[in-house]
Amino acid sequence: DSYESDGEAENKRELFGKSFTPTMSVGAGIAFRLGKRVNLAIEDRVILPFTDLADGQRWQNSGTGINGRVLTGNTDLYNYLSVGLNFNLGSQTKRIEPLYWVNPLDYAYSELNTPKHMKFPKPILDDADGDGITDQFDLEPNTPKNSPVDSHGVSRDTDGDGVPDYKDKELITPTQCQPVDADGVGKCPEPACCQTLDSLIKAGGIKNCNLGSLPSISFTNRSSTLSNDAKAVLASVAETIRNNPNCKVAVVGYGETSKSVQQLSWDRVNTVINYLVEKEGISTDRFIFKYGEANGDANTIDLREASADETPNSVPAPHPSLRKRR
Question: Which is higher by pLDDT, 154 or 121?
Fold first, then answer.
């Protein structure tokens, strides 16, 4: 408590009888994760003491004030910048990366992906009727086990005679033979055993051609592949064609706006004819190939009775380089 000279104080601030100088400290830092156990840290801190005497020296200038005090407008400032590497120390088996690097959901995600501690029960989705469609999606929950159903669990009826396939003893019944009995069997008259087809036509016993209305085949997007439903419809069409051996069928595709649309129309007509020839055994010369027609839905292929003057049976691809590859 004794000095050669009194220390200089600025502004004479006091707290509890002692000289008092407030300071302000501002800092910021960032860390970069180099690995699970190593990170790079960069920090900077600025200290403002609001005085020019923190280092014991006042900046000298040429002017003096009242009572010989030096005029000053400066304050001291301290800046501390650090760059460091942080390492995890301790047991190699127990040490982990700092928790602020860890996603709190990592453990849960890891367990869901490859469970090591949690035991998950095997999911069981009820299918009361055993048709392969779970109960929450099954619109017909009482179909017999292994019955052919659609994606909604509804029994299939391939020939549309009102008798589901699992009961139908005649899976493909021509339209002209419907209605059918409880077993799905139609009531078509038996053909005459001893008369030739030509003699029956000449005698007026049967008409030269009586195809009637045939269903259309739909395609999706720019595909030329037949769906399972389309194949079922073509099976019914094939039966109708067999029952009318004197008829030719025009297979008509639409779309004339561009080369690609014309080629897609050709591809779809070709797909329908090939299926009826290769899968249903109908002769190629029974079909009239028509594509790129106007005034029709480009995603639909129509089947109709062909007139006597319609030709040809086959047509080369208009734009082979644009053919769809399946």
Answer: 154
Q: Rank 135-139, 208-212, 287-291 by mean pLDDT and report only the highest.
A: 287-291
Contacts from 50-54 at CB under 8 Å and sequence distance 24+?
50/21, 50/22, 50/23, 50/24, 50/75, 51/10, 51/21, 51/75, 51/76, 52/10, 52/76, 53/8, 53/9, 53/10, 53/21, 54/21, 54/23, 54/78
Write down the residue that tokens 């127990």 correspond to.
Answer: 94
Least confident of 51-60, 135-144, 221-230, 302-311: 51-60
Contacts of 239 (CB under 8 A, 6+ apart): 172, 174
Q: Are strands 300-305 and 217-218 parallel, antiparallel or unpaired?
A: antiparallel
Cα-based distances in Å from 70 to 5, 56, 202: 17, 14, 137
- CA torsion 292-298-299-301 (nearest 10°) is -40
What is the spatial distance between Cα 32 and Cα 150, in angstroms, rounded to a whole number? 57
Contacts of residue 24, Cβ cutoff 8 Å, sequence gap at least 6: 47, 48, 50
Q: What is the pTM of this model?
A: 0.39
